[in-house]
Design goal:
By secondary structure, the chain is of the alpha/beta class. Helix content is about 30%, strand content about 25%. It contains eleven helices and 13 strands. The strands form four sheets. The chain has a five-stranded mixed beta sheet, with helices on both faces. The protein has a four-stranded mixed beta sheet with strand order 8-13-12-11, sandwiched between helices. Helix 3 packs across helix 4 and helix 8 runs parallel beside helix 9. It starts with a strand and ends in a 7-residue tail after the last strand.
Length: about 325
């Protein structure tokens, strides 16, 4: 009997219509297109402007796109995971609301938050449920409305983040395709360098903290950059070494789209050719939990069955890691 593995069998995505360009940001904060592009690689990002619509709106749209492309009956979905750092509300699950709205009435669901590593960690969790043999259809969605926690007077953060969502379907595979290996890590000592402080249980919101902007994301850029460069590269190299892979064996690097310089540094440590590096940061910026599935959606037509893909991410917490996955299908255009 073949060993059961967990493979991605479909992808979907959604980004809002409103495009926040670098030129528009020039009218909002003290910055310019050349400064942003040279330091981050970002040209524009998408923003969900509609009042009352949150992360679940993005997640639902991405899930519906996948469902339509794959032709799966939502009633056959057994688990819905929403990887997000920006849930709709506290206490009530964004995943449960998403599952309800897409018609996944037979699924249980939950949210996952590991900041920018949420989707990467979610891949491990989704694959584990499939490999247990108890579930056959697991929907993993990465979605964030980062604009809801960004201060558009803070040029250190407002130039980086955007809104979006991507979704993947995990199913059992007996051809040894799908998730092969993972190296996932966390270090809580890094919490002070990247976080949205107020609104959590240790720091409840008050009128005073709202006036001071305490609900917005804070990032100590130099420390985060240094840790991201080292840890993402280190994780990818460990996965390559453990699986006896060389750069020639790697078909694609799907790295978290936080900063082009971080992605380039990770690829250089792997000695990987530029054409093997997935990149869409210039269009979307850092969509946190959505960057990896948005990459898969944008590159889906280029992926071939059996391709070796290395995923890597780094996020607040600190959380980071890498996953080695074999692609399971060819796209029919």
């Amino acid at each position: 009997m073949s060993k059961l593995s967990a493979a991605i069998t479909a992808v979907g995505a959604y980004v809002p219509e409103y495009v926040l360009t670098n030129q528009i940001l020039e009218t909002m904060v003290d910055t310019n297109d050349e400064w942003i592009t040279s330091r981050t690689g970002i040209k524009e990002r998408r923003i969900l402007k509609d009042e009352g619509k949150g992360t679940s709106y993005l997640a639902i749209k991405a899930a519906q796109d996948l469902i339509n492309k794959r032709g799966i009956d939502p009633k056959d979905i057994e688990l819905v995971i929403v990887a997000t750092a920006t849930p709709d509300v506290k206490a009530a699950s964004t995943a449960a609301y998403t599952a309800y709205n897409i018609g996944a009435v037979n699924a249980f669901s939950f949210d996952m938050d590991a900041a920018c590593s949420s989707f990467l960690f979610g891949m491990s969790v989704a694959a584990g449920y499939i490999q247990s043999g108890k579930y056959k259809n697991v929907l993993l969605i990465g979605a964030d409305k980062m604009s809801s926690i960004i201060n558009y007077k803070d040029r250190a953060t407002c130039i980086i983040f955007g809104d979006g969502a991507g979704a993947v379907l995990f199913e059992p595979n007996e051809e040894n395709l799908g998730l092969q290996d993972e190296y996932l890590r966390s270090d809580g000592s890094g919490r002070e360098f990247l976080r949205a402080t107020y609104g959590g249980s240790s720091f409840p919101l008050t009128p005073e903290t709202l006036d001071q902007g305490g609900q917005y994301v804070f990032q100590e850029g130099r420390t985060v950059f240094k840790n991201a460069v080292f840890n993402m590269a280190d994780a990818t190299l460990k996965v390559l070494e453990r699986n006896n892979l060389t750069k020639d064996d790697v078909s694609w690097l799907a790295a978290h789209q936080a900063n082009k310089r971080i992605i380039d540094a990770t690829a250089q440590r792997m000695n990987l050719e530029e054409e093997k590096v997935m990149m869409n940061i210039e269009k979307y910026g850092n969509t946190t939990s959505a960057t990896l599935p948005l990459l898969l959606n944008d590159y889906e037509s280029k992926l071939k069955k059996g391709d070796n893909i290395i995923f890597a991410a780094f996020g607040g917490g600190f959380n980071w890691g890498a996953i080695y996955l074999k692609w399971a299908y060819n796209t029919i255009n």
